[in-house]
Design a protein that fits this description.
alpha/beta, Glutaredoxin, seven-stranded mixed beta sheet, 6 helices, 39% helix, globular
Length: 194
């Protein structure tokens, strides 16, 4: 009798019934989606002039947003300490390579990190992202930095797509594998995704 009981116990431990938990799991995922939508709603609206800024380019010189007028710009605010930011960089690099000849600049602005963390990350990882431009917000932890003060960023990563006239064409927060919002926004601007 004991061995049957033990066998049943082991069987139930090996294949637990999680169906009672599914509504909570699905609700949590739905909550994350709603949070991303709320954070996206607080960003600069489509048609708004993208505020100009200048950051030091990791590769040397400066990145000045207005220097890209006449090009489409994918501007992403990110941090070395936010896993979704780092995960998204690999997908962004692939997209940048495939659209390189179409006049699209990809600018990554690190924000909310200290300079030492940023430099350590870049020294270890820059070779994986040869097509992306990297800069660091000069006041990363200040409430009036580029991300918060000019672009209303509350979550990282946050991406803006800026059209050739320097206006916001799309804005969204967060990143998950399989996310196509960036590709969709670029296609609306006539960019061929290959």
């Amino acid at each position: 009798m004991l061995s049957v009981y033990a066998g049943l116990l082991i069987t139930s431990l090996q294949t637990p019934n999680i169906s009672p938990l599914m509504p909570a799991i699905q609700g949590q995922k739905q909550g994350q989606i709603q949070d991303q939508k709320a954070q996206t709603a607080a960003l600069l609206t489509v048609g708004t002039d993208a505020p100009d800024f200048t950051v030091s380019n990791w590769a040397g010189g400066d990145i000045k947003l207005s220097s890209s007028k006449g090009k489409i710009v994918v501007l992403t605010f990110w941090s070395t300490t936010v896993p979704a930011s780092s995960t998204g960089l690999a997908d962004t690099e692939k997209l940048a390579k495939s659209t390189k000849e179409q006049g699209v600049d990809f600018v990554q602005v690190d924000t909310w990190d200290d300079k030492s963390s940023y430099e350590t990350y870049m020294n270890a990882n820059i070779s994986a992202y040869p097509t992306l431009m990297f800069g660091m917000d000069p006041s990363p932890k200040d409430d009036m930095n580029i991300a918060k003060g000019q672009y209303k960023v509350t979550d990282l990563p946050t991406t803006y797509v800026i059209d050739k006239d320097g206006k916001v064409a799309a804005a969204f927060s967060g990143f998950q594998q399989g996310d196509t919002r960036l590709q969709d926004a670029l296609q609306k601007l006539g960019v061929t995704i290959g």
